Amino acid sequence: MRNRLLILSVFIVASCGLAYELITGALASYLLGDTVLQFSSIIGCYLFAMGAGSHLSKYVKEERLLDAFVEIELLVGLIGGVSASLLFVVFALAGEPFRLVLYALVFSIGVLVGMEIPLVMRVLNQRQTDFADLVSRVLTFDYLGALAVSLLFPLLLAPKLGLARSALLFGLLNAGVALWACHSFKRELARPGLQLARSGVVLLILGAMFATSDRLTDWSEKAVYGDEIIHAETTPYQRLVITKWKNDMRLYINGNLQFSSRDEYRYHEALVHPVLARLPWARNVLVLGGGDGLAVREILKYPGIVHVTLVDLDPAMTRLFSRSEPLLALNQGSLADKRVTVVNDDAARWLEHHEGSYDAVIVDFPDPSNFALGKLYSTPIYRLLARHLAENGLAVVQSTSPYNAPRSYWSVDATLREAGFHTTPYHVYVPSFGEWGFIIAAKRPGYAPPERFPVPLRFLDKETTRQMFFFPPDMRRWDVKPNELNNQQLVHYFEQDWSQVLR
Length: 503
Fold this sequence. Notes:
Layout: H1 2-32, H2 35-56, H3 65-93, H4 98-126, H5 131-184, H6 192-225, E1 228-234, E2 239-245, E3 248-253, E4 256-260, H7 264-276, E5 284-289, H8 294-299, E6 307-312, H9 315-323, H10 325-331, E7 340-344, H11 347-353, E8 358-364, H12 371-374, H13 379-387, E9 389-398, H14 406-418, E10 422-430, E11 434-442, H15 462-468, H16 489-499
């Protein structure tokens, strides 16, 4: 019976091991960006460390196998359990050592996890378990545990518990396995009383941290953002944080500023009105991204608009901006307007599988900081976009900064032209971001900026619009490559540009 329970513990051990890997990878992606790079480097470091741990396990003496198993479970539970909370604190207090601490934690956890399975197999082998049966059962439960957590983490744990509490939960599970081993094999342990006391202490530490982890995370994020956090939420897709200072509300996605309520009107007026003011006949508008409803707010100022379709990946985003009173005041309840249909889907998939032509398309995706976002700025996606744009219609694409990220900006322009569009680049100064860029795309040449606007605006007029379409010498056009799916050149440009700006 105890042997079966020991094999069952492999299921928990494997679940915990993969969970720490997923949690550190997700946290690094949230805080550092570039999802592919973070997950790839963390997985590589973790697997290498597991190999080192498997090698080190052979130096554990036969008479200490169970004691070593208990001690390793307590260590991996303690280090893995506090890993996410510790990383949040390190990032908040001293950003520079973050990567060093991150990979030190990943390596330490990997070494310990790598020792677990060999030790369990040796313990079972001491009990004269058939070797073939031993290997098959241990590996079966190992892989089943990995499958279970790989499904639970994105669907349940990260959205409901958050990263810090998820790590602590798995730390408690590791410590629970250690406590069970102390109780079940107390006659075979060298110092069972000491091991029980250690298990109790680790469980107490992790339990206390689990109960207070929300406050620790809030404190860490407040130190990062500087202002009061009025909403923080981890979704299956991203980390949403909204801060407030006096009359300034700010939205951050994965640590990146999306808007400030003090000047977002400049951005959204510049995004929407140079297109719609040239399309007085427009009736149907498609918005890709823009789940905050602020672009939709500007679109609905035109009385001729009959229908707006908004496609945004994250239902938590559109739900938040449909229910929160301060945010409803900001977007003027645009997402609840009877003319608006909100669709929560991947924009690329939606464009591929849905029909319909739109007079105007507003593309307001986050910056192409990783490959998942970079695909939305690629030639194939823009060709799909062309299928949904009326022959005389106009599209506009948020295109990062032509001043701080010129390679990125002009790559978006090159990609649209590669997809067959005629492009008209322009830019606007938004105090929260600096110079920011947009590109108008049309199937036919001849776009001219509007000289007047038929709706009341706070920022745009004839003169500011004229200036938006003028590029001084320090924002000249760059000769760069379009963004294709097979190379994601835009993401590399983006990293190269912003690495020279951000400190």
